[in-house]
Amino acid sequence: PDVIIEAQFDDNDAEHGQDHLQDTLTDDIKKLSLDTGEKGKAAGVTGVHRAKQDDGPKVNDPKLLPDEFLQRTAKVVYILEKKHSRAATGFIKLLADRNSELFKRCAMFSPVDHRVPRVYVPLADCPPDFVTKPEAYSQMLFICRIVDWKEDSNFASGQLCKSLGQAGEIEPESEGILTEYGVDFSDFSPEVLECLPQNLPWVISPGELAKRRDLR
């Protein structure tokens, strides 16, 4: 009887080529064919049908497949540390379904970084005239911070933190990148500024210049 063998293999098998896979499958087919053939001879024609239905090899049983054909699976059980800042730079737009209840409460935030999911943000966080003039904000960059992502939702939930300015300009783009990566770019404190020379204009003394390599 015909026997179908289902096999899975990973990238390591692909690197070694198809010869290894074909040889292994051929050996398995020969073994299964010999087993079912011997059962058929011993039981007769009726026994062949019974063996095929009841005693035939269960090709979906993982125990019959070699380990290299099995795909390991796992489950995330705990998050040790959150590495991402949960902040993203992107654009806001109205939801497509204008008749839904969600349209009256939320807008859609689309991050520039496509690795970050799209986010529902409250309309209360958006500019006051965003609903009436959404096209005025189509090229305006915003900072959004993800606060939650429910299991039954395709999109995360977040809050708009700040309007950065027009997309493509140096200052808004730079501020967005620094915020995404959690870089503190606030002004220096008075304690730090007191460490700097107070008598201005300050110049490097000749003695210091003699000891240093000038890279200016």
TrEMBL record:
Annotated region described as Disordered, given as residue ranges: 39-60
Gene Ontology biological process: miRNA catabolic process; mRNA catabolic process
InterPro entries documented for this protein: Dis3_CSD2, NA-bd_OB-fold, RNR_Ribonuclease
Residues in CSD2 domain copies: 107-182
Localization: Cytoplasm
Gene Ontology terms: cellular component: P-body
GO MF term set: 3'-5'-RNA exonuclease activity; metal ion binding; poly(U) RNA binding
Keywords from the UniProt entry: Cytoplasm, Exonuclease, Hydrolase, Magnesium, Metal-binding, Nuclease, RNA-binding
Transmembrane portions of the chain: none
Main location: cytoplasm
Residue ranges with Basic and acidic residues bias: 51-60
Xref: PANTHER family: DIS3-LIKE EXONUCLEASE 2, RIBONUCLEASE
Protein known as: DI3L2 exonuclease
Organism the protein comes from: Acrocephalus arundinaceus
